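User: Could you walk me through two proteins back to back? I'd like the raw sequence and the structure tokens for each, with a short line separating them so I can tell where one ends and the next begins.

Assistant: Of course. Protein one, sequence then structure:
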Amino acid sequence: MALPQMKADTTHARLAALDLPDGAGWATDLRRAAIARVTTMGLPHGRDEYWKYTDPTSLNAVDAAPAKTFHVVDEAPLFGDIDRVEIVFVDGVFDADLSGDLTLAGVEIDRLADAMSRDIHWVKDLYGTLETAGQTPVQRPLAALNTAFATDGVVIRATARAAKPVSLTYIHSKDASDAILHHVIKVEKGASLTLLEVGPAAARFNKAMEVDVADGAAFHHIRSQGRVHERRAVTHSFARLGQESVLKSFTLTANGALTRNEFVIEITGDDAVAHVAGAALGDGADFHHDDTVFITHDALNGESRQVFKKVLRNGATGVFQGKILVREGAQKTDGYQLSQALLLDDDSEFLAKPELEIYADDVACSHGSTTGAIDEDALFYLRSRGVPHGKATDMLVLSFLAEALEEIEDEALADEILTRLTGWLARRNH
């Protein structure tokens, strides 16, 4: 079926402005297949079912809208005191001078650009594979665009338990930077890896990450998307889980004109666990934050959790679209979904679309979504005991966010995130 003319024109203009990165023959073939997917689907439009709450115009545009750079001077770098392997990208370009030693026992780390230029590399069998699978039943054309035109990224294969995290630091230095990065993570049987992501990356950022978690393996992911107020970002995380594997991901978002984080997870092995959580804090009518999650259970005894909390003020907008799909035969599935928004004024809004689609009869699945204001009784209680209004409000906000933060297993990393949340709240009381 032919695309609507407006969608076709937008897609053609965007593709015509991009150059196919150099690489080995197999890499070029994979990229061309991704271009074919984009061309067939067309870039997203506001009338598309999964884009009706978020306007994709700025993400589709040929040129990125400028975003003023923001240099943090009032707080130390996030995770700066944690021993880690640090990989730095400046406006989407790998910076060897700022990056550390990429050697880590039990872990192979390469740049995507290098891996895709080799005639033989393990990434050949994984690059674009999970993204392609994630196009069904919901089309994700911006992810296919990423697969086609990503200029760099990292490819990581963990063959044992990593002694320390791998950290990806994104630095935004140019007002009109437009970055497309693609990461491929393979966690082999029985291995484990923690990945940290920090920073705003660019004025406009399109990132995709494909994560293959083998039987008995574990992948932990903690991300903070930076403090640049005007940046726009769309991220895609695709994951496949084997038997008795574990994936846990947490994202903190504060500031940003437009952020859309997509998670597409397929549980293919029995007794696997997938937890995805996030906390978003928005201040102002130019803040729009969208979490879109799709978890498919296709095995026995699977467990999934979606826990997303948003704190919105001064006209900010939050969006949550979450789905749990339980396929036929995926008995004993335990699926939990929670999305909540705390509105600190009457001008902000939260748009939620929780979904369950179940084809098995022996499951425990639930979803809940609430929107509310500060508990006035609790606020009165704190103020009656001498706590100033601003401090009391901050305490109640942190209490509201606590359930999402509990999804971070590492206490040191959780404390770092809590410190950032506390700082964000404190800055808004001045």
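----
Protein two, same layout:
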Amino acid sequence: MKRFVLFITLALLLLGAAIVQAQSPVELRITWYNDGTEGEALRTALDQFEAANPGITVVIDDIGYGDPNVYHSTIQAQVEAGDPPDLARVNNVALFVGSYLDLRPLVANVDYWETNFSEQVLNSLRAGAEDTGIYGFPLQFTITAPFINRTLFEQAGIEVPSDSNPEVTWDEWAAVTKEVADATETPYAIAYEPRGQRFWGFAISEGGMWFDAEGNFTADSPGFRTAAEKLVAWNQTGISDPAIWANLPDGPNLARDQFINGQVVFLYSGSFAVGGLASAIGDTFDWSAIPNPSGPGGSTGSPGGSLLVGFAETKHPAEVAKLFDFLTQADVLGEFSVKSSFLPGHLGLAQQGLDFTANAEILNALSAEIPKLDEQAYRLQYSQYAFTYNRPIDNRLSQVIAGELTLDDAVAAIQKDVDDAIAATQTQ
């Protein structure tokens, strides 16, 4: 009898401990930065998650993004110290490959992930071809694409070519926008934001190959040269304003200002600019997003944005996975995208479109470009050397436009700049 009582007592004690443990509150922390209202949108989603999961709270640690290197190095230091956040918003994803939490054995439906998130994005978080893990998803997606001033087309009495045929070449756009500019006495036809990332898709569409057979970056391909020659010619013949590329830090703002002020027909920018453009333009003129121009290499913009990832050393992997399952639901992610005015990285949502509260037609037109993205564009964006590739393209093309370098010299200089920068990181 005593043994039975003792057994019951121990069982009750163990049950009580289990209940206490099960009821112990769990706090998850997300390292974060804000571009706009997405922090508020995330908080709304997290409040819903907490209401559905009593005992789990989620804290947003907003450490800012004034310098992307500082932001990511902060996370890197935490990872190296063995004390990473449970989750983090990152865009330089290659920095942390090998440190991510594998969600594959933890999430409710792996097929859902593999159907609704691009394989290229999922691969960007993996350590190699043998790695099949699922480590995160694109919480926010951006894409480069052009905008046009429709009012100027109407005033010129010229049809917008993409309205009847989405596959319009760069040469055709240069010709028709020049015609519109001349007819309406608009100073410039095309404003192209001076950023290497904006140039990736242009070069690919012209048949450019950014990687050689061994997977190494290469600046020297016929497609790159063709795209660069066209960009230079536009600036030399008055189709574009060379001041945009002469002022690299402020170049994107100058290009956007020209579009806002009705001084250019066609702006090459991207989804990240929509909110600012819409606010500044108001009802001054009618404008829209159009498909990326076509060429022998197809039609593609460049992806961007940020991913939400978990870290392997979290003390709460099950709860992290539960949060991922919640945030990736189509209705939750759709609401986040609508509230933040970000394009959805969820392919199903991108294809069906969303009821954005503002600029819905423009944002959904940009979303429709996501399935067209070229594999090279993903490789560039999610490489650990993405920023390393960009800056030499900016700098050297600006020198060609200014007449300081030949294109041959610029191609060689871009390659040397990239190779030297990569070598420097490997010796640190």
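Residues 9-21 have pLDDT under 50 and may be disordered.

Let me know if you want the two compared in more detail.
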